[in-house]
Amino acid sequence: MNYRKGNLDDCIAIHSLICEMENRELSYDRFYTIYQDQLSDCHYYCLVCEQERAVIGVLNLRFEAQLHHTENIAEILEFAVADTYRNKGIGKEMFSQSCQIAKINGCSQIEVACNQLRENTHHFYMREGMNNFHFKFSKRLCEDSAQQNSIGT
Questions:
Q1: Integer Cα distance of 39 and 85 in angstroms
Q2: Is 143 inside a domain boundary?
Q3: What is the reported pTM?
Q4: Whole domain around residue 68: which residue ranges?
């Protein structure tokens, strides 16, 4: 396995992993634009895992100073490992590396929001030493019902 910072050449593979995670097809054009913007922004870091030059995992981080912590905090925005590579220690290694990357970027804490139905993922985060201290609420501001936030998506 090779773990490295993502680049624009990884976009198609990362898009595929995120679509698999979300269980829906996301607009590639919009995805590409956002990914390209994040690559040039020092507040983001996209960690990828590849095997034989194929991207099989992605963990996307955002770094930000938060008033209520009065510190820099890292947030895992997306984290996906291809189905056939799960339960092989890849997620554990990616999580560990993301914690180190967050520390290097001056962060004192790492956070993640996770869909309520992803119970296996909850257990993973707890095994990695994370605690569930918060609820996260969301409200869709657009009329596009096809993009509705809900449990299970």
A1: 25
A2: no
A3: 0.89
A4: 2-132
